[in-house]
């Protein structure tokens, strides 16, 4: 050290010494924290832990959880690979914070179902753009009485406004018709269908929540879609100043984080405007939609200081409904179209079954689903291969637990790798092969598989599961009843490789929709 210091001027010597002390202390603390009773896992680096070894690709996206370090790129694939060495339960570190990772159907079910009392909560997550950090909607709310109250209300309100009923099928078919009419205008020209699908799914949510829909050229509707897309596409490195304010000294990071924050503020303002309109015309004897139902519940609790039915809670629930209900379902439909282009023989079989059950003019209904086993099997295989949400939202333990021979303490973050189940070669031979017959028995009838945990499982099962399944079946069958999807003439063969982010999405591609005669 004396030789080193003698060769440097004093300011640089002091900095070198300070950095060395910090590294030594951090290394000791990190090693000490890694020697607990947690499951073993891959060795990390001092200070940063496993951050750099969890991703293979450059930064491209950030998720709406504002959780910078895990749900990104091909982390689900890396976790699945590590499980072969460390087992289905292991620990990774983001800085000094341990995260227990669950892989495989057995381990995930044992945690989320068998031990649901311990594994069903959520860690603290900042709600950007909200003046009330206690208003966390459903997604970010810990497993508390507040969560149970709002989940019960949300599920009841969704049912009241059509989810699971024939009336909702009519709204979805209306959107499927509008989508088909717009596609017809393309007149066999090549186009990207991604934004059109988001228009469709956004309008389904809008009809439930707002009691109205957006025309495809509606300015407010396009602004809403743009804000949703920007939420999912921002570069995650631009989130650093939000988590670490000192990073604001770097202009590019400061500007990126401000863009994201401003986008969330604008998104919230969009919903506040809708809430204000509903308040102006609210009639407790004429409940028109989800917002009215929430306002009625808030009105019933007026004067109750402990009421959680606040305007900010409503705005956050709306934000989550639109972000999840628009993007994930649209991306699954996007995958569906891509797989039909990549497998024209399967597309033809689905169309033959649709023709035999529906003919050319009859609208599909959920009652037809049992008569269309091959179509049902194809949709299940699309859901499996798409794995649109490859990592479940982070869980959090509410108490100490001995789990599979390891001691997991209270307040430990838990990562649930859905991808590891949907691409498990022990469950699905040749898991990267698109094969609908996995879901058919020897007689050709559809077979349901419990390992299809696309919407997670346990107490945090996605509340939008039923609606998403109805949308996928009705929109998919409507499209294939009317169109055959093909690649543009002379274009290269598309790949089934997607892009990891909050959702696992297809890379943008062009297609041609040929009207069926």
Automatic annotation (TrEMBL):
Main location group: endoplasmic reticulum
Transmembrane segments: 12-30
Alphabetical list of Pfam families matching this protein: p450 (PF00067)
A single Gene Ontology CC term: mitochondrial inner membrane
Listed EC numbers: 1.14.14.80
Cellular location(s): Endoplasmic reticulum membrane; Microsome membrane; Mitochondrion inner membrane
Keyword Endoplasmic reticulum applies: yes
Known cofactor(s): heme
Reactions that this protein is recorded to catalyse: N-[(5Z,8Z,11Z,14Z)-eicosatetraenoyl]-serotonin + reduced [NADPH--hemoprotein reductase] + O2 = 2-oxo-N-[(5Z,8Z,11Z,14Z)-eicosatetraenoyl]-serotonin + oxidized [NADPH--hemoprotein reductase] + H2O + H(+); an omega-methyl-long-chain fatty acid + reduced [NADPH--hemoprotein reductase] + O2 = an omega-hydroxy-long-chain fatty acid + oxidized [NADPH--hemoprotein reductase] + H2O + H(+); (5Z,8Z,11Z,14Z)-eicosatetraenoate + reduced [NADPH--hemoprotein reductase] + O2 = 19-hydroxy-(5Z,8Z,11Z,14Z)-eicosatetraenoate + oxidized [NADPH--hemoprotein reductase] + H2O + H(+); (5Z,8Z,11Z,14Z)-eicosatetraenoate + reduced [NADPH--hemoprotein reductase] + O2 = 20-hydroxy-(5Z,8Z,11Z,14Z)-eicosatetraenoate + oxidized [NADPH--hemoprotein reductase] + H2O + H(+)
Leading EC class: oxidoreductase
One MF annotation (Gene Ontology) recorded for this entry: steroid hydroxylase activity
Record-level GO BP terms: organic acid metabolic process; steroid metabolic process; xenobiotic metabolic process
Keywords, ordered alphabetically: Endoplasmic reticulum, Heme, Iron, Lipid metabolism, Membrane, Metal-binding, Microsome, Mitochondrion, Mitochondrion inner membrane, Monooxygenase, Oxidoreductase, Transmembrane, Transmembrane helix
Top-level taxonomic group: Eukaryota
Membrane-related topology note: Multi-pass membrane protein
Purpose: A cytochrome P450 monooxygenase involved in the metabolism of arachidonic acid and its conjugates. Mechanistically, uses molecular oxygen inserting one oxygen atom into a substrate, and reducing the second into a water molecule, with two electrons provided by NADPH via cytochrome P450 reductase (CPR; NADPH-ferrihemoprotein reductase). Acts as an omega and omega-1 hydroxylase for arachidonic acid and possibly for other long chain fatty acids. May modulate the arachidonic acid signaling pathway and play a role in other fatty acid signaling processes.
Protein family: Belongs to the cytochrome P450 family.
Protein name: Cytochrome P450 2U1
Organism: Branchiostoma floridae
Lineage: Eukaryota, Metazoa, Chordata, Cephalochordata, Leptocardii
